Every structure is written in structure tokens, then in C-alpha cells.
Amino acid sequence: MLTLEQILQPCYASLCERLASLAVLIVIEAIFEWLLFIYAVRVANLPLLRMESEPGVRVLRVVTLLCSGILVFNTIAPFVFLFSLRALDERYQSVDEKETCRHYAFVFRT
Hints:
Helices cover about 70% and strands about 0% of the residues. By secondary structure, it is mostly helical. It has two domains: about 1-50; about 55-110.
């Protein structure tokens, strides 16, 4: 994506912005992997060096990832629904997030 964008519209500022956002996403992903690792070690009460080989750790990891996936899906589902409505029908161009989702909070507004 970065390479294609630079071929079509070369811009140094855009390249730096994309690379910085990619670096931020990598750091966030690494932090979440570290938190998952620490959570799995604490819940299963395992030593750090042999954590993956102990019984029940893989099931715990799958259940944890499933729960976090459900949480993420439930968080972004109203926005995906609203963006799909806006893209498919012109009547919903002026609809606000508060009108579509009753659980909308100002925290998510940028």
C-alpha cells in the first residue's frame, strides 16, 4: 500500500506520516501481545520459561483471544453499520452516530 501510493502520488510528507502510523500500530500490537503473555502467565500461574508447553495454556489463549475479538467486534459494529448505511444510501448522509447507536459515547468522537 505504501509503495503503490508513493508510485502514484509521490509525497515525502505522506510517506513519513504513513511510516509513523505503521510504527505506532506495530508498537500497539507488541504491547497487546506482551499483555496477553503476562495475563496467560498470571492466570495459569506458570513459570515464564515453560509457559507454552503446560497443559491448558493453549485453551486459555484461545478463549482469551475469542473474548477480546468479541469485545472488539461489539465495539466497532455500530460504526461499521453506520458507515455502510452512509455508503449505500444518500438518505443516511446526515445521520449522526447518536441517532444510530443508543450506546454511543463522546469518548469515541474525534
